[in-house]
Design a protein that fits this description.
13 strands; globular; mainly beta; Jelly Rolls; 3 helices; about 220 residues; seven-stranded antiparallel beta sheet
Length: about 220
């Protein structure tokens, strides 16, 4: 299981509501650090759905279905999170994913100081494997399995899933040229709701996957 910290529901909602309020009051969103918030993918970022029918199918207006029907994206709007989306994987035993792509960002200087923060709600049983992937061009990517983390979350409650950048770097991502900061995929049946995906400072006391030890003199 990826080393993550699951925030309490109260803390999560407080942070997310603050972030969404700030995003609404101070447009445009900074695409270097915010990838999805309040229903928006800022700048050139956009959602892409994939399955064996078509591995690259851009989606407009946060609504659509992958070519083979494995993954469906639709609104999961609530009063608290009006821009939230629902991602639903059907029961067919093939791979499907939803990714954010569209530009290149250099995150290398934040390798040991930041984490990808996903505001997420689990609405179904969690299959054996759920992969979160970060990509840096053709043949350049890394993934972490978050199935165990999702199983720990209370079903039907908004939670925060932080993933340290060094987890992806340790698995092969070149953080200096990230072309897709977030992708989530599975071959099982699954329903997730997502309200925000952004980069934030690492939680105090969390050393991520690779402790940043001081250099020896």
């Amino acid at each position: 299981m990826v080393r993550t910290f699951l925030m309490s529901l109260t803390t999560t909602l407080t942070l997310l509501l603050s972030a969404i309020t700030l995003a609404a009051e101070q447009p445009p969103l900074n695409p270097n650090f915010i990838y999805f918030s309040n229903g928006q993918t800022p700048d050139a970022w956009h959602w892409v759905l994939s399955d064996p029918g078509n591995w690259w199918q851009p989606i407009d207006a946060n609504e659509g279905k992958s070519s083979g029907g494995k993954v469906t994206m639709s609104s999961a709007a609530t009063e608290q999170f009006p821009g939230a989306i629902k991602l639903k994987w059907d029961r067919r035993d093939n791979w499907g994913a939803a990714a954010i792509s569209g530009r290149t960002v250099d995150l290398s200087k934040f390798e040991h100081a930041a984490e990808l923060m996903v505001a997420i709600k689990v609405e179904s049983r969690v299959p054996h494997s759920v992969k979160v992937k970060m990509m840096c061009g053709e043949g350049c990517e890394a993934e972490v399995d978050v199935a165990d983390n999702l199983r720990e979350m209370p079903r039907g409650q908004w939670m925060a899933l932080p993933l340290a950048l060094d987890c992806f770097a340790a698995n092969g991502v070149d953080l200096s040229k990230v072309t897709s900061p977030f992708s989530v995929g599975s071959s099982g049946a699954l329903e997730l709701h997502i309200a925000e995906i952004s980069l934030g400072s690492m939680v105090a006391g969390d050393q991520g996957c690779v402790p940043n030890e001081p250099a020896t003199p």
